[in-house]
Design brief:
The protein is of the alpha/beta class. It folds into two domains: about 90 residues, RNA methyltransferase domain (HRMD) like (Transcription Regulator spoIIAA), CATH 3.30.750; about 200 residues, Vaccinia Virus protein VP39 (Rossmann fold). The strands form four sheets. Strands 9-8-7-10-13-15-14 form a seven-stranded mixed beta sheet, with helices on both faces. A four-stranded mixed beta sheet has the order 1-2-3-4. Strand 3, helix 2 and strand 4 form a beta-alpha-beta unit. The longest helix has 19 residues. The radius of gyration is 20 Å and the shape is globular.
Length: about 300
C-alpha cells in the first residue's frame, strides 16, 4: 500500500520538480494514516520525519517496520538509504518549538533554491532551516524588493532576507529571538556573497517590543511569519497568533511607509483573520497563489498580502 502510494506521488511530483529546476521539495505528507511520515528531498538527501502516534508494535517490531519503510523510500526515490535522515516528531498546529535542538550531529550542507544557496541541517533541529512551503512567497519578495527597506520579522534562518538582498533591496533588517538562527541567517547571506554590513542588520529582540521602537515610515516591505504560539522565557509576554495578530499587524503597519506591503503567514489551521480591526488599506488572501505544487492538498497555512494606507 505504502509502496504504491509513494510510486504514484513521486512520479507526479518529481516530474514537476525537474521541469521547474527545483531540487528541494516535499514528496509525501501523511498521505496514508498507517504511514505517518513527512518525506522531503534536499538535493540528494532525504528528510524523513515520523509523526508520533499510538501503535501496537513492540520497540523491535517498530524498528523493523521503519527499516522496511526506509528500504522502500530509498528504492523509489532512487537515493541510498545512508542518505536518509530520520526525525521523530509530534504533529503540531504550527511551528511550535522550532528553536529546540534534538541532537548535536552538526550535519550542515548547502541546498540550492532559485539560484541561491542555503545552509540546511536535516538532523540537529526540529526543522531543516528552509521552509519549502514558502518557495513562491520568497520569489514574490525578491520580485518587489529592489530599492526597498525590507524588514524580516521572526526571521528564522533568514531565507526571505537572502531573497530580498538578491532582489537588490536598499536594506534588509532581520529580527529574531534566537542568536543561533540570526547567525545562521547571516551565514546564508555570506554564502551567496550578498552580505554588506552597511545594508544588512541582524537584531536580537522580541519582535513585539522591537516594533514599539520603530517610528513611522521605517520600512517599505515586511515579512511576518510568526510561530502559532510562543512562551519563550526571553519574551516579555507570550504570543498567541489568533489572539495577538491584530496588535502585531497594526504595530507593523504603523512602521511602514505609505503604500508599504506586509506578507503575513501563519500555520495555525483554525486561524481567522480579523479584517475589521486591521488598519490596512487592502488585505488580499494569497494562500492559494503561494501554495507550491508539492504542497497542494497537504498545506495547512494561510498567507496574506496587506497594504498600508497612503
Amino acid at each position: 500500500m505504502f509502496r504504491n502510494r509513494l510510486v504514484k506521488v513521486f512520479k507526479h511530483i518529481h516530474k514537476q520538480a525537474v521541469r521547474q529546476h527545483i531540487t528541494c521539495y516535499r514528496v509525501y505528507d501523511h498521505d496514508l494514516p498507517e504511514f505517518p511520515f513527512c518525506i522531503e528531498i534536499y538535493e540528494n538527501q532525504i528528510y524523513l520525519a515520523e509523526y508520533k502516534r499510538r501503535h501496537s508494535l513492540t520497540e523491535e517490531e517498530h524498528e523493523q517496520w521503519l527499516e522496511d519503510c526506509i528500504t522502500i523510500i530509498s528504492e523509489i526515490l532512487q537515493l541510498p538509504s545512508e542518505n536518509v535522515y530520520i526525525k521523530q516528531r509530534q504533529r503540531k498546529a504550527g511551528r511550535l518549538g522550532q528553536y529546540q535542538r534534538v541532537d548535536t550531529s552538526g550535519n550542515f550542507f548547502t541546498a540550492k533554491e532559485a539560484g541561491l544557496d542555503f545552509k540546511v541541517n536535516l538532523s540537529d533541529y526540529l526543522d531543516t532551516g528552509l521552509f519549502l512551503d514558502h518557495r513562491i512567497t520568497r520569489g514574490l519578495v525578491r520580485d518587489i524588493s529592489e530599492g526597498k527597506r525590507v524588514l524580516n520579522l521572526f526571521c528564522y534562518t533568514g531565507s526571505f532576507s537572502v531573497y530580498a538582498a538578491a532582489g537588490k533591496a536598499a536594506s534588509v533588517t532581520s529580527v529574531d529571538l534566537s542568536k543561533t538562527y540570526l547567525k545562521w541567517a547571516e551565514e546564508n547571506l555570506q554564502l551567496n556573497n550578498l552580505f554588506d554590513e552597511k545594508k544588512h542588520q541582524y537584531v536580537h529582540a522580541d519582535v513585539l517590543q522591537y516594533l514599539d521602537t520603530l517610528p513611522p515610515n521605517s520600512f517599505d516591505l515586511v515579512i511576518l511569519d510568526p510561530p502559532t504560539f510562543s512562551n519563550s522565557k526571553r519574551m516579555k509576554d507570550f504570543l498567541d497568533i489568533q489572539a495577538d495578530h491584530v496588535t502585531l499587524l497594526n504595530k507593523t503597519l504603523k512602521a511602514l511607509s505609505p503604500g508599504g506591503i506586509i506578507y503575513f503567514s501563519t500555520n495555525y489551521r483554525r486561524f481567522v483573520l480579523d479584517q475589521e480591526n486591521i488598519q490596512a488599506a487592502e488585505i488580499r488572501d494569497i494562500t492559494k497563489a503561494t501554495t507550491p505544487f508539492d504542497f497542494q492538498g497537504k498545506l495547512f497555512r494561510w498567507c496574506y498580502k496587506l497594504t498600508a494606507p497612503l
